[in-house]
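Is oxa(dethia)-CoA placement plausible here? Inputs below.
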Amino acid sequence: MKKIHAAITGIQGYVPEYILNNKELEKLVDTNDEWITTRTGIKERRILKGQKGSSEMGVKAIEGLLKKTNTSAKEIDLIICATVTPDMLFPSTACLMADRIGAGNICAFDISAACSGFLYALTTASKFIESGTYKKVIVVGCDKMSSIIDYTDRTTCVLFGDGAGAVLLEPNSNGFGIVDYILKSDGSGAEFLKMKAGGSLYPATHETVDAREHFVYQDGQPVFKKAVKSMADVSEEIMKKNNLSSDDIAWLVPHQANKRIIDATSRRMGVGDDKVMLNIERYGNTTAGTIPLCLWDWENQLKKGDNLILAAFGGGFTWGSIYLKWAYDSKK
Ligand code: UT7
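Reply from A.M.:
I modeled the complex. Tokens:
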């Protein structure tokens, strides 16, 4: 019997309309376009305005995906949502989205792995397909980072944006789809990248609000060092494990946290800039949204059989890579 792989058969992104560019940030904090561009590669990011949560963007991405792939919400067996900005601590954002799209009483849950969330969710979803349990699974990465960003902190507010991307996963018996994955974590990294309050350890109090502990805290340099090494290591590791040379790789799809981290990863892999998906300049770091948003932006350049390496590093620390064979010739 041929092995069943989980293949991406459709992709759709959603970004909110409002554009927060570097010039506007110059009015909020002591920063400048030159610093942000040279240190990160970011020019602008999208912001979801109003009383709306991450699910708002996730639902828009899913609805577009269903339409594009001619799939009814009732056909979906499972929704996994990767997010660190759920609408609420509970219920899960996946449950809210399954209800909003009219999917019925299906299995739905969230995965929290910060910037590696999409890789963790995609790998988890693939197991339900490979085992034959489910036939149509949606994986959505969505984060409203603006809801946890301190717009008086110049070291973080220039980095992040809001966005969502969703993929449809289906079984494939012809060798296309997810071939291999490596997922890692190191909880000792929490001291460098976290949102301190709002969980069970430090529930919200007047003090936690006054101390601005409901926002992202990041000690940039140690995170940068660990990100450069880990993303490059894990990308090289998955190539070696699967006997892939740089010529075999059609695309590197990296998490978009900092252009310098992406450059270091592609250099280590020996992959030229023309094979690297990059949209950080327009969206910044959308956490779980970056990788599906890249795939969405590049969809019409992808060809059936292309070897893709997806790679990410983020809060936890978490990091990882996925090797997949693209399953269809795209027509956007
Ligand atoms: O996706 C989740 C994982 N996160 C990441 O992968 C992010 C990893 N870290 C980074 O990407 C980088 O560390 C940052 C982009 C956050 C910062 O870049 P850096 O080159 O590491 O800068 P730095 O923190 O060493 O700061 C250099 C200088 C400092 O000033 P002094 O001490 O040299 O006078 C900062 O205060 O730049 C200053 N600075 C800024 N200046 C203008 C920090 N933020 C800003 C800013 N505008 N926004």
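Short version: The chain has two domains: 5-177, 179-325.
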